[in-house]
Amino acid sequence: MSDCTARRIDDMDAALGGSFKRARAELGVRAFGLQVIDLPPRFAHYPDHDHAADGQEEVFVALRGSGVVEVEGERLPLDADTLVRVGPAARRKVVPGDDGLRMMVIGGIPGAAYDAPVVTEIGGPAPSLT
């Protein structure tokens, strides 16, 4: 059998009422972080955060809907035509638009082996919203 895994997003193990899909674990990815997050229209509680302590950079990809990524006060579009990369020290917050947002977030630490956080493991605890 080939080294390949396919999973429907809506069938993946999830936390936070089904909004945080553990795509990395479901697909068996070990080299980088990969989650799918569903946010309802105008959801205001996505955490404003950075990764200065762990050095992780992130790429945000809209799979459905649209919104903005607020980075250090700048609002960058997040839609089907735009990818957004955010460096570790920059504060970021995602705000979905009127139709909500399904986004994929890819993360890793440049030059370092990936160490998966327990919240990304199947059956793991929910990630913090603070």
Mean pLDDT: 94
Percent of residues in helical segments? under 10%
Which value, in Å, is the CA radius of gyration? 14 Å
Query: How would a crystallographer describe the biggest sheet?
Result: 7 strands, antiparallel
Quick tags:
seven-stranded antiparallel sheet, 130 residues, 40% strand, 1 helix, mainly beta, globular
Quick description:
About 5% of the residues lie in helices and about 40% in strands. By secondary structure, the protein is mainly beta.
If you had to describe this structure to a student in words, what would you say it looks like?
With 130 residues, this protein is mainly β. Helix content is 4%, strand content 40%. Strands 1, 2, 3, 4, 5, 6 and 7 form a seven-stranded antiparallel beta sheet that branches. Strand 4 (57-71) and strand 5 form a beta hairpin. It is globular, with a radius of gyration of 14 Å. The model has no long low-confidence stretch (mean pLDDT 94).
Give the topology, please.
Blueprint: E1 14-15, E2 20-21, H1 23-27, E3 33-39, E4 57-71, E5 74-78, E6 83-86, E7 92-108
Antiparallel strand pairs: 1-2, 2-3, 3-7, 4-5, 4-6, 4-7
